[in-house]
Structure formats: C-alpha cells, structure tokens
Write a structure and sequence with these properties.
It is a single chain. With 313 residues, the chain is mainly alpha-helical. Helix content is 66%, strand content 5%. Strands 1-2 form a two-stranded parallel ribbon.
Length: 313
C-alpha cells in the first residue's frame, strides 16, 4: 500500500509540475514506488500453540480467548490501513480492499490433545484420587490384619517381621491397584494411554508411596493418625483442582509444595497427556523421599513400646 500511495502522489505531482519528473529525487521516489508495488502483499501468519495436556481447563479457555485476541488485532490493524487509504484517497481494487480486512491469518494448533471421551479431561484427577483411596483402604485393612496376627508383640505395635510383611504384601496390593486403575481407565472408559507399561509402573509406584505413607502413620499413631490422612486428602483437593495461579497464598506457599497428592497428580497428568513425558523430575524425586522416610518411620515405630491401647481386637 505504501508503494501505491507514493505512486499516486508522484502522479499528482507530475500533473501539477511536469518538470519535477526530471529531477533525481523524483526518479529515486519513482524507483522506490516501483519496487514496493512489484511485491505481492501477503498476510502475516500467526500460529497459536495450545497444549491441552498441560491443563485442560486453561487450554479450553485459551482455545476460545486467543482467536478472539487475534481477531481484535486484525480489526485494529485493518482500521489503521483503511484510515490511511482513505486519507490518501487511494484507489484500490476489490481484492486489495479484501486483503486490508484480514491482514493477519491465524492458525490454532493443539498439542498433546486430550481425548474427547467424557471422562478424559478429568482422568488425571480421578486416577490420582483412586490411587490415594485404594492405598488408603488397603493400608488400613492390611494394618488391622497384621495387628491382629502380631505374635511377637502385644502392645498394639508391629515387630520388625510384621513391618517387613507389610512391605511385601504392599507390593502385591499396589500391583492390583495399578492393574485395576488401568482396566477402568483404558478398557472401561477408553481413555487413550500412550505407553501402558510405563503407565502401570507409574501408577504402581505412586500407589506404593501412598501405601507407605499411610502405613507409616498407622504404625506410628494407630487409628489416632486417621484424621491426619484425611487432612492430607482433603487439603490436597484444591491443589490438584486449580492451577497454581488460582490458589490462595496459603495453599500456594504452604500446601502446594508439600502434599504428595500434588506430586502424583503432576506425574499422572504428564504421563497421560504429554507425549514422551519422562518419569524423572522433581515430583518423582519428592515422592521417592516421602517413600524412604515412610519406610524409616515404619521400622522406627517398632522401637517404641507402649500399652496395648491401639490394638484392634
């Protein structure tokens, strides 16, 4: 459009002052105008990338908001072009006017797309909760069973042999949990899982850490520790429901970086929605530390002697 404006002004100048066409400045401007008009105007291309796997809720908002943002930008630039063309009294063809209406071409690209299945968007949240609840119920039942059948102690606590048996039986329990979660996720609800083997290993590992944490609380405090497990569960709901920026200062500063359920949720989210996601990282490292500390507490609880007040009859 700049070339056409210069050409039109030069043509007007020639009509008014024919001798101006013989000057060097005029020839320079003419050459500039010719070079500009020879170039075919092209739309600016903008690609918008939205990763659904990072956060389904935010991705859905951005999928609607970003195109509207580029539409407004398109309208603003188009109005400026039209204003300049009108002020210059520029004569344009219908094709040129059409190009001025949409100077920017926008393409929305979705990465790590989430399945359109009804439960797919909530799958990481539900899988995390199933892992916690499955481990919670299993750890309680297993602790009751070991407490009832403990032969070496009669004070309501487990012996070293009992804790070791807890750990061994826990491996079988979390294996069953992982297989069950995979069955309902993949078979029953047909949620896409890119790497079933890695998914099973991840769910089994997360469930085992949950199991260890819950068993450690029960071994140390007995049923009196049950409210603590409920607090961890209830307190973690907001952390895995909202993005960090939407959390209150308390949750963001004191709960978000501490709750094991959030670490598990991040790993499951990446595994289900992010292609070629790695199992390593800070969340996995934090869960590993929690698991090791829980085992230490379980064995440490055998060193404490007290009356048979928390034994389950």
């Amino acid at each position: 459009m700049k070339g056409k404006i210069i050409t039109q002004k030069l043509d007007t100048l020639v009509v008014k002052t024919p001798l101006a066409a013989e000057t060097a400045l005029f020839q320079q401007q003419k050459a500039l105008a010719n070079s500009l008009t020879q170039k075919t105007p092209a739309q600016a291309k903008v690609s918008l990338y939205v990763s659904q796997g990072s956060n389904v809720t935010v991705a859905n908002i951005l999928t609607t908001a970003l195109p509207k943002l580029t539409d407004r930008l398109n309208q603003k630039i188009s109005n400026e072009y039209i204003t300049v063309a009108n002020k210059s009294r520029l004569t344009l063809s219908p094709q040129d006017w059409s190009k001025l209406q949409t100077p920017i071409h926008t393409t929305l690209i979705k990465r790590n797309q989430v399945s359109t299945k009804e439960v797919s968007g909530m799958a990481p949240f539900l899988v995390t909760i199933f892992c916690w609840l499955g481990s919670l119920i299993a750890s309680l039942l297993n602790w009751r069973d070991h407490s009832k059948n403990e032969k070496k102690r009669r004070d309501g606590r487990l012996s070293l042999t009992g804790v070791t048996s807890q750990l061994i039986s826990g491996v079988a329990i979390v294996t069953a949990i992982a297989v069950s979660v995979y069955f309902f996720t993949k078979v029953c609800y047909d949620v896409p899982i890119h790497d079933p083997q890695q998914f099973l290993l991840l769910i089994g590992g997360i469930s085992f850490v949950f199991y260890l944490l819950q068993s450690a609380v029960l071994d140390l405090l007995g049923l009196k520790g049950w409210p603590l497990l409920l607090i961890i569960w209830i307190g973690s709901m907001a952390v895995i429901t909202f993005i960090p920026q939407m959390l209150s200062p308390f949750y963001h500063n004191y709960v978000y970086d501490l709750t094991p359920i959030r670490f598990a949720y991040d790993l499951i989210l990446n595994q289900m929605y992010i292609t070629d996601a790695s199992l390593t990282g800070s969340s996995m490292l934090n869960l590993l530390y929690i698991g090791i500390a829980s085992i230490a507490v379980m064995y440490g609880s055998t060193l404490i002697k007290r009356h048979k007040e928390s034994q389950i009859a």
